[in-house]
Amino acid sequence: MVLLVSGLVAGLILAACSTVAGSGDIDATGRFQGVELSEPTPKPSFVLTDTAGQPYDFQASTQGKLTLLYFGYTYCPDICPVHLAQITSVLDRNPPLRENTEVIFVSVDPGRDSPEVIRNYLDGFSEDYIGLTGSMDELRTAEEALGVPAAILGDTSDPDYLVGHAAQVFAWAPDGLGYTMYPFGTRQSEWAHDLEVLANLGGER
Amino acid sequence: MNWSWWCTSSLRPWRWELTLYPGVWVVVGALLVLYFRLARNKVLARSQKIYFLLGVLTLWVASDWPLGPLGAGYLASAHMVQFVLYAMVAVPLMLMGTPEWMMRRVLARLRLYRITRRVTGSLLFSGILYNALLVTTHAPITVDTLRAGQLGSFAMDMLWIATGLVLWLPVLSPIPEFRAKTYLARILFLFLTTSVIAVIPASALTFGDFPLYNTYELAPRVFDITALEDQQIAGLIMKVATIPITWLAIGVMFFRWARQEGVPSTQPRHVDS
User: Fold this and answer.
1) What are the chain B neighbours of A9 within 8 Å (beta carbons)?
2) ipTM of the complex
3) Domain tally for chain A?
């Protein structure tokens, strides 16, 4: 019995150590830990309005940069802040990666998310993040370009209404191609791994 | 008002709104009813009653809102505070508040005497078992799996109580044959059991590059601390919070040992030839 328990302890300790050691390593042979697309897709083209009120041409403005794009809304109680917190934590620990990464948050709730509201929200994560918004038609164009269903607004007579929206983050490498997307639940270790891989696929870095 | 039987992980943002956990009240109430029912018509020292009540109070605070749900679903640091309260505070206090005859009666009724005797029969075995339970109940796969449901979360809390019993029975058991025979053995057992292997999971938490627990990493953030900072605090709590408790116990045992030996604790020992 003592031997059995000793073996169990040793196994658990080894497992714990390997988890810790493995979590920060970059696997040179594996491609991605996010959801890999069946084939790389070009960055779509659409124009929305940034938090300074200026038109933002997504394709042109992010050329040559690792780009992450997420549809969400600032009143989102759960998924949006967690996604942004995860990405922020990973980029904060890798300044060179952070410099070459554009994080773009597209609000699908223009009724409540004015440019100022979006800016204040994003500044809670990083002042470098880009916030975009637009009319419902412009937002729909952007969603269609990404192939995601249109956001569904809840009962807008309730000030705390919820919005159903795509919950994945899209990623494009500096070469302008999208290889992966990241559903809710993506771990920081997975982000750190994939962002390094993506950053090295073409571009200036 | 929200309620559920036991605390679990949740994707809902944390709010300072009271949530009811009747399962916790049932467990706490059952312990109190059992204790005072068994103690009816018996003489119980006032200090024993106080120790037991403090132990149950600690158990209640660790399990109920707000610490219970914070530890079950939002903060690894709160999870670690819960562990310390269960295994290092509530269990020893309840053991100190339980008279020998009561514990014998409960163990006999539950048919647990033999297994308890076996577990406490070897200090090496108790030490290994404590650390196995410690590592297992803090392993990410265990926490993420058990904390996802009420039954699993309840099982994890009960496992922590069992972990505390494995640690403290050889030191504080009211039943003499469960205790290590000498104070020196008890002191060494407590020191070695809590300060060697426990450093490994605590260091993994403190020095990990990324959050280890899915549950706490993907939970809505609380108190504006990142998941990694929260985990580092959890590792520190695991390392540091147990030190004063074990050293207090070691200190008390040392002075009792000295008193038993008949040596004044503040005077050097003189040997007459």
Assistant:
1) 128, 131-132, 135, 197
2) 0.82
3) 1
